[in-house]
Amino acid sequence: MRITVISGGVGGARFTRGLLALLADRLPDGHGGTTAQVTVVANTGDDMWLHGVRVCPDLDTLMYTLGGAVHEGQGWGRREESTTVATDLAAYGLGWEWFTLGDLDLATHLARTELLRRGLPLHRVVEHLAARWRPGVRLLPMSDQEVETHVVTDDGTIHFEEWWVRHRAAVPARGFVQVGVEDARPAPGVLEALADADVVVVPPSNPVVSVGTVLGVPGVRDALRSTAAPVVGVSPVVGGAPVRGMADACLTAIGVATDAAAVARHHGLRATGGVLDAWLVDEADADAVGPLRAEGWRVQAAPTLMTDVPATAALAARTLALVDRMP
């Protein structure tokens, strides 16, 4: 069984962890893993240069979460982290007080930067770093080329991370610009993972700056539309609010309501030129089921909160069952 996941950071990482738990139970390989082949295509639009090193938030969140090293309370970063280097930088009057790199995390960024400067493309760098953590998936960046999401505000354009972390999305966004996306190419393996999949899953991730950025890489949206595999998404909105983060601010900026049905329509039904065939909503949004079914969607309401690994494995099972792809 071949499953391809299009992922942002925390939500996609937690969903994939639950998916792997489900597959290890249903399709065990006898060594604690699974015979299923899971490929995760990660958003790299949040990436940036900071203190001379390349930071890739979503890739690292996936790697740490699936490799068992993530700070569970935060959902990102390394557990048992320290900030000695950041504190000493601040003593020199350097660094960004709103974006602190932990010491363990900094080692990952330094390793990535060294490999990039040796001339390795990003997908090879990810492969090298992931070999340490053994995430149980093939982890791919959406592109080897640098793409950075910037936010248009009334006072100018700033990097997405500054808007998200420093301003907590409180500064009204007038739009988003994926700098470099027009010239980017899908990383090796991305288009093949979409074309050859038995099912493609879009887990609960920010529909605008995570999933939307991946789909903005030339060729990815077309590959998703043309794959023979069913494409199923899980709503990141529950009861009119994002489960975590500030996706509502992103949706508002592009004129989409923070509503499970509205997000489904934003992605669009493949039969009418969109990218999805099916959509799983939370029980709190059960009133969306009827209207979406009338429009041709496969849709179901079920518990979607990823409170722990067993609950997330159950969510993954419901997601696959919605498109008849349960192992």
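Next protein, fold it too.
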Amino acid sequence: MVTAVVIVAVLLLLWLVTGVRVVQQYERGVVFRLGRVSGRVREPGVTLLLPVLDRMRKVNVQVVTMPVPAQEGITKDNVSVSVDAVLYFRVIDPVKATVDVQNYAFAMLQVAQTSLRSIIGKSELDDLLSGRENLHQGLEVMLESPATGWGVHIDRVEIKDVSLPDSMKRSMARQAEADRERRARIITADGEFQAAAKLAEAAAKMSETPAAMQLRLLQTVVEVAAEKNSTLVLPFPVELLRFFDASTARIAAEGSGDAGDAAVEAPAQGAAVPAQAPADGS
């Protein structure tokens, strides 16, 4: 009798030992008893199951990094692009992730691909290239609804790369080059305008004191001579040119005045000759 009790106790102990399971820190255990979810989700540590009756499925609750393959589409402004993304999510309800969906990771991948195609068709090319923050929020909202029903939380979703056709890349390069050239010309013209304004102010100041022009001339000569050149070029004084110009204009005016007096006298003499002719004939 004692031997039978010992045998039964040993068998019972072995039966209980076979039901011991260990749940890791990054896992949660969902226990099925005779095919139905039993009790609460098993936390990390040692847990005891009823052999033969219980079956536990472990669910990883770590953040999953899932790359979304490149999806081709046409943007709102009719540009063909290829866009890929990356999705970060984790399981927050192990029961839903186990019972309500067959493979939550595969399901999330498919939803991410379709959502990415949809967001491409609703966006313009400039938004895909520079306004990605709004697109990320839009993708997250589109993925959050089905993910909640599967016990999954979306941490973040981001667009990785946008591939453009070669013709579009060349067009954008020409546009960028033209824009930079336009800005360079505007800056150059603005610099010339400011320089001209300063030169006009300097000329007005120098005109008040004629000696300043001579001092500026001497300073220029000193700067040229400092270069150790064998030839020194001296600029012709501007005042001398003005003197010659004024003298030429005065001489021309006097010459035109003498010619006018001679022309006036010549007709007067010619008119007197016909008046005397009848008198001589008579």
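About the second fold: The radius of gyration is 50 Å.
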